[in-house]
Write a structure and sequence with these properties.
- The structure is a single chain.
- With about 700 residues, the protein is of the alpha+beta class.
- Among the domains are: about 1-365, Methylamine Dehydrogenase, Chain H (7 Propeller); about 370-435, no CATH class.
- The strands form 9 sheets. A 5-stranded antiparallel beta sheet has the order 1-2-29-28-27, with no helix packed on it.
- Helix 8 crosses helix 10 (about 510-530).
- Keywords: Coiled coil, Nucleus, Repeat, WD repeat.
Length: about 700
């Protein structure tokens, strides 16, 4: 059993761990359990709770005793008895099941909608009857008051099959080209269907007339969402008499009040995948929405995320066990997942021992899911040479990086840097030796890193202490003794670079002040070498001389800045000269430029003109366009201005237009000459 936590909500995965093959004998299974700790510790809540290859749909009977699941391959249905914690029966089918519905309180009446347009009815003993609908079906709902089955699919019609009379009734004609999902409200039995055009049509079964139309595709597009194509409806679920949740094919969930055409809230999964399932959790007012990648639980009033789960395999369906905190999923894998979330509710009565088990685990916390994984960024993957694994099952995307198995990470790190452990070991030994030295009686000495900065801080602290003594204030904490700034004087990566341009410009008096400190450093190093403590001030100039020097420094501050700038310019000139020499030494290779179709090469001056134009303001460019005649600005009646632009014609277009003009003129001249000849011939005949 694995435990994960998100937003302080603990999720227990009861199906985690390896499953034993069916063909193993009991003796071998017991032997494996003795050897393997993971197999011994796993929890098999329901025996053989899996499918041969893939599970597509999973549902719970109304009495809560039976869990039914369909999958492949071969197409089959399996019924699990929760009271016996094992499989009740298994039935193989002729074709794959699209969806199914349990009509009775137990497993005695089941309807299957299959791929080949077949509708199959099963009773307690097995197969009962089979019929066919005119078009391929995608979903169906059962209307309990009239015993009607409503089928939607690849057609504009909704087919009705009455189970009391045993015949098809007149179908409902809709405006949609195709329908994907449907549902019937459990309170007032309103029938709703989601179309491929992103609309929801609501019908009254009593009058067989449409009573409402919602355009969910338009409402799902907000400022934050990015969609490709028209969103179609992929999930639909009623909650009580007035609320309805709609899922789109682009990953949005819309919550509606049936009295309004605008959604109360729009929640985006941000994966762009179709919503597969929507469930309501009434105890905490949550909506559980799932696409093929993630299951999200969020508050239906605020839209705030409660928690989420990302299984290893793609999700096909989600089922919430009624009045409990148990969640089951059908996946693109043989094993069907079972999750227990104590915050949502208690464990079902047939597995009440889970409550005691989770309480013990909370008292004695063990390793979570992420203890066996290492979080790495893209840069870390490139350094390890594992960038090609992005998108594979070995990496799980999470926030700005990936989770990978800790064993794989250690192997890759050993191969990338085989001497990393030895370096780490030496560094640890060095740190231990320094820690033991720190316990001895030490001389007052400066740190190895940033000695001048440390000396400056010591001087400033001495001055501050004198002021504090005079004013009788409390002593301030020292930066050198503060653990937060300890690394700055130990790690060489924090060494101040005094040759950098920023340092020299921001600290123009550093050169003079650093000379004084260098003298003091030399004196301190000599004293340290002799093993003496320095208590008195090192020999130097008197305080009066220092005060006079400080005043001179203030006067010469501008001159020092100018000198530093001159030095920086000289260094830049030297660098440029070196680059020119390198460029002259290298052989220049000819460069080829490709001209677009329909354009002629004039000169390189055109590009320069364009660059100059781009630098000008919009006002200057508009004036230029007016002079050239490509822009016309006129005042409108309202008081605003109207601007019309004429596109510049390329040389090829001009030539083409000139050729067309010539051709038209030639044709006109030919027509005129022909008409003139005809008129002359006519006159000749008359005279004759």
């Amino acid at each position: 059993m694995q435990v994960s936590s998100l937003n302080e909500v603990k999720i227990y995965s009861l199906s985690a761990g390896r499953s034993l093959p069916e063909w193993l004998s009991d003796r071998k299974k017991r032997a494996l359990q003795k050897k393997d700790v993971d197999i011994r510790r796993r929890i098999e809540l329901i025996q053989d709770f899996e499918m041969p290859t893939v599970s597509t749909k999973i549902k719970v009977s109304r009495d809560g005793q039976y869990i039914m699941a369909v999958g492949t391959y071969k197409p089959r249905v399996r019924c699990f008895d929760t009271y016996q914690l094992s499989q009740k029966f298994e039935r193989c089918l002729d074709s794959e099941v699209v969806t199914f519905e349990i009509l009775s309180d137990d497993y005695s009446k089941i309807v299957f909608l299959q791929c080949g347009r077949f509708v199959e009815f099963h009773s307690q003993h097995g197969h009962y009857y089979r019929t066919r609908i005119p078009k391929f079906g995608r979903d169906f709902s059962y209307h309990y008051p009239s015993c009607d089955l409503y089928f939607v699919g690849a057609s504009s019609e909704v087919y009705r099959l009455n189970l009391e009379q045993g015949r098809f009734l007149n179908s409902l004609q809709t405006e949609a080209s195709e329908s994907n999902v449907c549902d019937i409200n459990p309170v007032h039995f309103l029938f709703a269907m989601g179309t491929a055009e992103g609309k929801v049509e609501c019908w009254d079964p009593r009058t067989r007339n449409r009573v409402g139309l919602l355009d969910c595709a338009l409402s799902s597009v907000t400022a934050d969402t990015e969609i490709e194509g028209l969103p179609s409806i992929s999930a639909l679920k009623f909650d009580g008499a007035l609320n309805m949740a709609v899922g789109t094919s682009t990953g949005q969930v819309l919550l509606y009040d049936l009295r309004s055409s605008n959604p109360l809230i729009v929640k985006d999964h941000h994966y762009g995948l179709p919503i597969k399932s929507i469930q309501f959790q009434h105890q905490l007012d949550l909506i559980i929405s799932a696409d093929s990648r993630i299951i999200k639980m969020w508050n239906k009033d605020t839209g705030k995320i409660f928690t989420s789960m990302e299984p290893e395999h793609d999700i096909n369906d989600v089922c919430l066990y009624p009045n409990s905190g148990m969640l089951m999923t059908a996946n693109e894998a043989p094993k069907m997942n079972i999750y227990y979330i104590p915050v949502l509710g208690p464990a079902p009565k047939w597995c009440s021992f889970l409550d005691n088990l989770t309480e013990e685990l909370e008292e004695n916390p063990e390793s979570t899911v992420y203890d066996d994984y290492k979080f790495v960024t893209r840069k870390d993957l490139e350094n390890l040479g594992l960038a090609h694994l992005v998108g594979s099952s070995l990496l799980r995307a999470y926030m700005h990086g990936f989770f990978m198995d800790i064993r794989l990470y250690h192997k890759a790190k050993m191969m990338a840097n085989p001497f990393a452990y030895e370096e780490y070991r030496r560094e640890k030994i060095r740190q231990k030796i320094e820690e033991t030295r720190a316990q001895r009686v030490q001389l007052k000495k400066l740190p190895k890193v940033n000695k001048e900065l440390a000396l400056k801080l010591i001087e400033e602290e001495g001055e501050e202490q004198q002021i504090i003594k005079k004013r009788k204030q409390k002593n301030l904490p020292s930066l050198l003794k503060d653990d937060r700034f300890k690394v700055m004087f130990e790690n060489p990566d924090f060494q101040v670079d005094e040759q950098s341009e920023e340092f020299r410009l921001l600290n123009p008096l550093v050169s003079k002040i650093s000379e004084k400190r260098k003298r003091k450093l030399k004196i301190l190093e000599e004293l340290e070498a002799q093993g003496q403590e320095e208590e008195e001030e090192p020999e130097g100039k008197a305080s009066d001389a220092e005060s006079s020097e400080s005043s001179d420094d203030e006067k010469g501050w501008v001159e020092e800045v100018r000198k530093q700038r001159k030095l920086l310019r000289q260094e830049e000139k030297l660098k440029r000269q070196e680059r020119l020499k390198e460029d002259q030494q290298t052989l220049l290779k000819p460069q080829f430029f490709e001209i677009k179709e329909g354009e002629e090469f004039r000169s390189f001056k055109d590009s320069a003109k364009k660059q100059k134009l781009m630098k000008k303001t919009l006002e200057d460019r508009l004036k230029l366009e007016e002079k050239l005649g490509t822009l016309n600005v006129s005042d409108t009646t309202v008081g605003s201005k109207q601007a019309t632009f004429k596109l510049k014609k390329s040389e090829q277009q001009r030539k083409q237009q000139e050729a067309e003009k010539r051709h038209r003129q030639e044709r006109k001249s030919l027509r005129r000459s022909a008409s003139h000849l005809k008129s002359r011939r006519g006159r000749g005949r008359l005279f004759h």
